[in-house]
Amino acid sequence: MLLPLTGAFVSGLVLGAFLPYFPVSIFTFLLLVAAGLTLLERGHRLTAGLGIGLYACLLGGLLWWTIAASEPRGPGLLSGSEPRTMQVVGTIVEPARHRPDRSVMIVSVVRVEDERGERPAAGLVRVTWRDPSRLFAQGDTVAFTARLRPPIGTLNPGGFDYGAYLRRHGVEAVASVSGGRGPGMELRDSGHRSIRWAFWHRLDGWREQIRLAATRTLEQPALGIYLGLIIGEQGFLDPSLRDRFMATGTVHILSISGSHLGLIAFLSFCSVTVACRLLPAAWLLQLSRRITPTRLAALLTMPPVTFYALLAGAEVATVRSLLMILVFLLAVWRGYAQHLLHALAAAALVVLVHDPGAILDISFQLSFTSVLAIALVLQWRGALDERHVPTGRRLSERLTGWLRDYAWITGGVTVATLPLVAYHFNQIAWLGLLANLVVVPLAGLIVVPLGLLSAIGLLIGGGATLPLGTLNEAALTIMAGAVSWLARLPGAAWHVASPSTVAILCFYTCLLLLGWPKTRPGLRHAAAVGAACLLAWWAWSPRDLPERTLRVTFLDVGQGDATLLELPEGETVLIDAGAAYDSLDMGRAVVGPYLWDRGIRRLDLVIGTHPQRDHVGGVPWILQSFDVGAYYGNGIARPLRFYHSLQRALRTTQVARRRVEAGTLLLATPSCELLALHPPPAAERPLEGAPWSSGTRLNNHSAVVRLDCGPHAFLFAADIESQTMQLLRTNGAPLHVQVVKVPHHGARSSLHEAWIQEVGADIGIVSAGRFNTYRHPAPSVMRAYEAAGTRLARTDRDGAVIVTATMSPTGLQMHTTRELRPRPVRLGQAALSGELRNIRLLWQPWVRD
């Protein structure tokens, strides 16, 4: 009974999430459901009580989502959308997350002070403290002065919006403070004196003790893996190593979530069961009179799993996973192993009643799916059957059976989570079927027990270093080496386009039919073929560009540039790839996922317009992750770390390196030409007088590229300033185009009205970051383009901008990511038309006029 009722409630939550966009369709659907339930009751296929319960849960879920989404909120920390500098006093409410040079904390604000004076306030602030001079724990009351701004992310088709993620989790503002150059953060009151926070404060102290001891004892990559596995600290893990774990389908080992806790619980459960079965027959008989080995194993598994989750920081995702596993174990302990699905449904119900928005969270989806897959496999394999205690089997047979069960669990989790991983991470981790058989036993049987033993020994005995440090280093290094070796197998990292929601539902329907015992053989065979066809389609991920169509995408990479050209004959060109910082690489976070989502695995050309971080910082990762035909740069070298990374990537990938010079035909196809207009050859230096470290000189030597495809022309002007604009006019460069990438993010130094008039573009694209410190774009520049009749689009407001063109003179269209997203519909005369528009947006990548 609980399982269908929970399913109805979850369906109601989903309907509630879509209600603002499809009110007419959802109300119609509710009427049809009511009519269907009535027909089933009259046909005696459904009892009246169950029908009423199902419909009540469906409406309850919809109502609960609506109430949660419309909770009244206070005035907020920021009265408007602009950043403001203020002093903040608040309490740290989550475990601090650390990197080698910074700490990140979530602060619940109590009061603020700015030019309007001191006043009470409420809300969450995510604070990044660079070069911290001390450490804080949960419950500590702190004060700091910083520039608070709303959470922002990037807005790209199918991309991850980090700002929206923070806002969904209640974070109203973000801030950054410095310990080296400023006052940093001040402790006002310690959490250990608070009844509410004393335990969590002590737990944070233990975590910090383990972290400091590990940093003194272990070297990379062992350090990053150890901290991720034992205390859930991800900040010390090398991104390239994380990519290798992702490629092999073993990245779940690094984050303590459903699959991790579930597998650890399974290993603990099996260990206790095996230990019971190894007891002398008389002892086992005495034990069985009081409690069965299965129930004892479930009971004894609860404390270590709970301690492990708390030590990992007890984050929301970890607590959700813990709750599901505890309910799972409780059902086994109570002898309700045959009702495990109902137990998991109850756990999901508790989580969703507390936080309805969790249903849209990837951590909840992966955790619940993983634990559900483990439960189904265990139940199907009969591993929890208390009536079957094979005490007489040999150890080798028991070991073989255990390995067989484990292989089924690994395969079940991998297959069950495959669509979600493909959707959120653009990858099919097919190697996980093999890699998990190697890595998970190594982690579960050796690395994690050894690491936890060392951590417990440190907490009990004290000391500055980690006990058993040498053994930990060796085990972790072996695991890192095994993952790295597996990741080098051909095709290990198989990236795909995100599957549609409909395709994912079809895939899970096929799995349900395959596993359902009452499914007829013919239907089971059809389900297997359907699932295989879906997997093959996802693995292929064909490109969806219509024939003889040009598509140019100006990606939202914050304060920087990244433009993708998809030519009618299939060639692809990437111009710049955004910035790369210590904690964020736009090539990895934005450009790469977008290319995969478009079905692009090869780039014919990559052009780095000039060696500045916001243009070529993300290029090294692109060179290392994609098949690149050639790289074009302007030939200027700089003694900076991001440029050294670019040079190293070019050497290791052996991508052909060429120099952009005016007059060079970079690419020619039957319908398109890509021509360089600037900079001049190295022998000609008309722009002298400033060192290469000068931003103005670097900008003025940017590569300027013109694309001509049939009747359409594009100008990609990089960061050139007014001096180069005049030079291009003097040299007679072909400047008149339909679409122009506005130079230098719309900076005032790139204002040249005569150049703007000569370009005469119908469409202008400004690539800039929201709230950037340069205040790009300048209002005077925007007015100049508008006066010339140019229609402007801005990535800081509109997100990524997509321009498509057919080979006809009138076949040019521009759309932005923001306008391509469904909009809430108000009930009224225009409700149906607005809803039809949203439906078209769901079924078509962009609307054609």
Gap between N and C termini, in Å? 50 Å
Summarize the main sheet: 8 strands, mixed
Structural class: alpha/beta
Number-wise, the strands total 25
User: What is the averaged pLDDT score?
Assistant: 84
Outline, from the CA principal axes? Answer: globular
Determine the number of helices (DSSP H or I, runs of at least 4 residues): 28
- Low-pLDDT runs: 386-392, 845-849
Percentage of β-strand residues: 15-25%
Set down the secondary structure blueprint.
Blueprint: H1 2-18, H2 23-42, H3 48-69, E1 84-92, E2 97-99, E3 102-114, E4 117-120, E5 124-130, E6 141-148, H4 162-168, E7 171-178, E8 185-189, H5 198-217, H6 222-230, H7 239-247, H8 258-277, H9 281-290, H10 293-311, H11 316-333, H12 340-354, H13 362-381, H14 395-425, E9 427-428, H15 432-461, H16 469-487, E10 494-495, H17 501-515, H18 521-540, E11 549-554, E12 563-566, E13 572-575, H19 586-597, E14 602-607, H20 613-616, H21 619-625, E15 627-633, H22 641-653, E16 656-659, E17 665-668, E18 672-678, H23 695-700, E19 704-709, E20 712-716, H24 722-730, E21 739-741, H25 753-759, E22 763-766, H26 779-787, E23 791-794, H27 795-798, E24 801-806, E25 812-816, H28 831-843
Parallel strand pairs: 5-7, 13-14, 14-15, 15-16, 20-21, 21-22, 22-23
Antiparallel strand pairs: 1-3, 1-6, 2-3, 3-4, 3-5, 6-8, 9-10, 11-12, 11-24, 12-13, 17-18, 18-19, 19-20, 24-25
